[in-house]
Amino acid sequence: VQRPCAATVSPAAFRLAGGCLPLSAQPMRLFFALACPPPVAEQIVEWRSALALDGSPVSAANLHVTLAFVGQQAEQRLATLLDLAASIEAQPFTLQLDQLCLWPEGLLHLAASHPPTALLKLASDLQHKLRSSGFELEQREYLPHLTLARHSRQPAKVAPPAFAWNVNQFSLFVSLPEPAGVRYTALASWRLHRAP
Protein backbone atom coordinates (compact mmCIF):
# COMPACT_ATOMS: atom_id res chain seq x y z
CA VAL A 1 0.00 0.00 0.00
CA GLN A 2 1.39 3.36 -1.03
CA ARG A 3 1.61 6.04 1.65
CA PRO A 4 0.56 9.66 0.99
CA CYS A 5 3.39 12.16 0.64
CA ALA A 6 4.64 13.78 3.83
CA ALA A 7 5.27 17.52 4.02
CA THR A 8 8.80 18.48 5.03
CA VAL A 9 8.00 22.17 5.49
CA SER A 10 5.29 23.24 7.93
CA PRO A 11 2.20 25.05 6.60
CA ALA A 12 3.28 28.10 8.57
CA ALA A 13 6.08 28.55 6.03
CA PHE A 14 3.46 29.41 3.46
CA ARG A 15 2.69 32.78 4.96
CA LEU A 16 6.23 34.05 5.25
CA ALA A 17 8.28 31.79 2.98
CA GLY A 18 11.35 32.67 4.97
CA GLY A 19 10.29 36.29 5.23
CA CYS A 20 10.27 36.89 1.48
CA LEU A 21 6.58 36.43 0.71
CA PRO A 22 4.57 39.60 1.42
CA LEU A 23 1.14 39.18 2.94
CA SER A 24 -1.21 40.99 0.59
CA ALA A 25 -4.31 40.61 -1.49
CA GLN A 26 -2.18 40.27 -4.62
CA PRO A 27 -2.41 36.84 -6.29
CA MET A 28 0.68 34.67 -6.31
CA ARG A 29 2.15 32.89 -9.31
CA LEU A 30 2.43 29.25 -8.21
CA PHE A 31 3.61 25.96 -9.65
CA PHE A 32 4.51 22.44 -8.49
CA ALA A 33 7.95 21.25 -9.55
CA LEU A 34 11.03 19.16 -8.89
CA ALA A 35 13.88 21.34 -7.71
CA CYS A 36 17.23 20.62 -9.31
CA PRO A 37 19.72 19.77 -6.50
CA PRO A 38 22.45 22.44 -6.17
CA PRO A 39 25.36 20.11 -7.11
CA VAL A 40 23.57 19.05 -10.30
CA ALA A 41 22.52 22.63 -11.04
CA GLU A 42 26.15 23.72 -10.80
CA GLN A 43 27.17 20.98 -13.25
CA ILE A 44 24.44 22.02 -15.68
CA VAL A 45 25.40 25.70 -15.51
CA GLU A 46 29.08 24.88 -16.08
CA TRP A 47 28.18 22.69 -19.07
CA ARG A 48 25.81 25.36 -20.42
CA SER A 49 28.45 28.09 -20.08
CA ALA A 50 30.77 26.15 -22.37
CA LEU A 51 28.12 26.26 -25.10
CA ALA A 52 28.30 30.07 -25.35
CA LEU A 53 24.53 30.32 -25.77
CA ASP A 54 22.60 33.41 -26.71
CA GLY A 55 19.27 34.29 -25.13
CA SER A 56 18.35 34.58 -21.45
CA PRO A 57 19.82 31.81 -19.28
CA VAL A 58 17.94 30.53 -16.24
CA SER A 59 19.89 30.99 -13.01
CA ALA A 60 21.21 27.91 -11.21
CA ALA A 61 18.90 28.53 -8.24
CA ASN A 62 15.85 28.55 -10.53
CA LEU A 63 16.52 25.31 -12.42
CA HIS A 64 13.59 22.91 -12.03
CA VAL A 65 11.27 20.46 -13.76
CA THR A 66 7.65 21.62 -13.65
CA LEU A 67 4.95 19.13 -12.67
CA ALA A 68 1.95 21.45 -12.87
CA PHE A 69 1.64 25.19 -13.43
CA VAL A 70 -1.10 26.54 -11.16
CA GLY A 71 -0.81 30.19 -12.21
CA GLN A 72 -2.07 33.25 -10.36
CA GLN A 73 -3.83 32.24 -7.14
CA ALA A 74 -5.19 34.08 -4.12
CA GLU A 75 -3.62 33.44 -0.72
CA GLN A 76 -6.88 31.82 0.40
CA ARG A 77 -6.30 28.88 -1.95
CA LEU A 78 -2.95 27.88 -0.43
CA ALA A 79 -4.57 25.63 2.18
CA THR A 80 -6.33 23.70 -0.59
CA LEU A 81 -3.04 23.26 -2.44
CA LEU A 82 -1.33 22.03 0.74
CA ASP A 83 -3.98 19.41 1.42
CA LEU A 84 -4.08 18.35 -2.22
CA ALA A 85 -0.32 17.83 -2.44
CA ALA A 86 -0.23 15.93 0.85
CA SER A 87 -2.76 13.43 -0.54
CA ILE A 88 -0.53 12.47 -3.49
CA GLU A 89 0.80 8.91 -3.41
CA ALA A 90 4.05 8.61 -5.35
CA GLN A 91 7.34 6.75 -5.35
CA PRO A 92 10.87 8.16 -5.64
CA PHE A 93 12.67 7.74 -8.95
CA THR A 94 15.83 8.65 -10.83
CA LEU A 95 15.54 11.38 -13.43
CA GLN A 96 18.03 11.20 -16.30
CA LEU A 97 18.23 14.26 -18.58
CA ASP A 98 20.05 13.16 -21.73
CA GLN A 99 18.60 15.31 -24.52
CA LEU A 100 19.14 18.94 -25.51
CA CYS A 101 16.05 20.31 -27.26
CA LEU A 102 14.74 23.60 -28.60
CA TRP A 103 11.08 24.50 -28.93
CA PRO A 104 9.95 26.90 -31.70
CA GLU A 105 9.54 29.83 -29.29
CA GLY A 106 13.25 29.64 -28.44
CA LEU A 107 13.02 27.67 -25.19
CA LEU A 108 16.23 25.64 -24.90
CA HIS A 109 15.86 22.78 -22.46
CA LEU A 110 17.06 19.44 -21.22
CA ALA A 111 14.70 16.47 -21.58
CA ALA A 112 14.63 12.77 -20.82
CA SER A 113 14.66 10.31 -23.70
CA HIS A 114 12.86 7.88 -21.40
CA PRO A 115 10.82 9.79 -18.78
CA PRO A 116 10.37 7.63 -15.66
CA THR A 117 6.92 6.12 -15.27
CA ALA A 118 6.85 7.36 -11.68
CA LEU A 119 7.43 10.94 -12.87
CA LEU A 120 4.63 10.78 -15.42
CA LYS A 121 2.28 9.28 -12.82
CA LEU A 122 3.19 11.94 -10.26
CA ALA A 123 2.48 14.75 -12.73
CA SER A 124 -0.72 13.10 -13.96
CA ASP A 125 -2.10 12.48 -10.46
CA LEU A 126 -1.22 15.99 -9.36
CA GLN A 127 -2.84 17.59 -12.40
CA HIS A 128 -5.96 15.42 -12.00
CA LYS A 129 -6.38 16.45 -8.37
CA LEU A 130 -5.87 20.11 -9.27
CA ARG A 131 -8.54 20.02 -11.96
CA SER A 132 -10.90 18.13 -9.65
CA SER A 133 -10.43 20.90 -7.08
CA GLY A 134 -11.37 23.61 -9.57
CA PHE A 135 -7.93 24.79 -10.68
CA GLU A 136 -7.64 25.56 -14.39
CA LEU A 137 -4.56 24.07 -16.03
CA GLU A 138 -3.17 24.26 -19.54
CA GLN A 139 -4.64 21.65 -21.86
CA ARG A 140 -1.44 20.27 -23.36
CA GLU A 141 0.59 17.10 -23.31
CA TYR A 142 2.90 16.91 -20.33
CA LEU A 143 6.51 17.03 -21.54
CA PRO A 144 8.91 17.04 -18.58
CA HIS A 145 11.86 19.36 -19.18
CA LEU A 146 14.38 21.61 -17.47
CA THR A 147 14.63 25.04 -19.07
CA LEU A 148 18.19 26.22 -19.74
CA ALA A 149 17.52 29.50 -21.58
CA ARG A 150 14.76 31.47 -23.25
CA HIS A 151 14.91 33.30 -26.59
CA SER A 152 17.77 31.02 -27.58
CA ARG A 153 18.94 29.05 -30.60
CA GLN A 154 20.05 25.44 -30.94
CA PRO A 155 23.83 25.26 -30.45
CA ALA A 156 25.80 23.31 -33.04
CA LYS A 157 27.82 20.16 -32.39
CA VAL A 158 26.98 19.58 -28.76
CA ALA A 159 27.90 16.35 -27.00
CA PRO A 160 24.79 14.68 -25.55
CA PRO A 161 24.11 15.89 -22.01
CA ALA A 162 24.14 13.40 -19.12
CA PHE A 163 22.65 14.76 -15.91
CA ALA A 164 20.75 12.75 -13.33
CA TRP A 165 19.52 12.89 -9.77
CA ASN A 166 17.42 10.83 -7.40
CA VAL A 167 14.05 12.51 -6.92
CA ASN A 168 12.58 11.96 -3.47
CA GLN A 169 10.36 15.02 -3.08
CA PHE A 170 8.35 17.62 -4.96
CA SER A 171 7.58 21.21 -3.99
CA LEU A 172 5.14 24.07 -4.39
CA PHE A 173 6.95 27.17 -5.65
CA VAL A 174 6.06 30.83 -5.84
CA SER A 175 7.55 33.12 -8.50
CA LEU A 176 8.75 36.37 -6.93
CA PRO A 177 9.74 39.37 -9.08
CA GLU A 178 13.21 40.85 -8.60
CA PRO A 179 15.08 43.70 -10.32
CA ALA A 180 17.13 41.17 -12.31
CA GLY A 181 14.19 38.90 -13.16
CA VAL A 182 12.37 36.39 -10.96
CA ARG A 183 13.23 34.10 -8.08
CA TYR A 184 11.50 30.78 -7.46
CA THR A 185 11.00 30.04 -3.76
CA ALA A 186 9.75 26.71 -2.41
CA LEU A 187 6.84 27.24 -0.04
CA ALA A 188 6.47 23.60 0.99
CA SER A 189 7.81 20.19 -0.03
CA TRP A 190 6.47 16.64 0.16
CA ARG A 191 8.58 13.51 0.34
CA LEU A 192 7.98 10.52 -1.91
CA HIS A 193 7.82 7.03 -0.43
CA ARG A 194 8.51 3.57 -1.79
CA ALA A 195 5.68 1.09 -1.49
CA PRO A 196 6.31 -1.35 1.41
Strand content: 25-35%
Task: Report how far apart the termini are.
Answer: 7 Å
| SS summary, helix count | 4
Query: Strand order, biggest sheet?
Result: 1-11-10-2-4
Mean pLDDT: 87
Amount of helix: 10-25%
Give the number of DSSP strands: 11
Which secondary-structure class do the elements indicate?
alpha+beta
This entry's quaternary arrangement is single chain
Largest sheet: 5 strands, antiparallel
Tell the overall outline: globular
Provide the low-confidence segments as ranges: 9-23
Which key phrases capture this entry?
single chain, 196 residues, alpha+beta, 5-stranded antiparallel sheet, 4-stranded antiparallel sheet, 4 helices, 21% helix
Structural summary, described in words:
With about 200 residues, this protein is of the alpha+beta class. The protein has helices at about 15, 40-50, 80-85, 115-130, and strands at about 5, 30-35, 55, 65-75, 95, 100, 110, 145-150, 165, 170-180, 180-190. A hairpin with a 5-residue loop joins strand 6 (about 100) and strand 7.
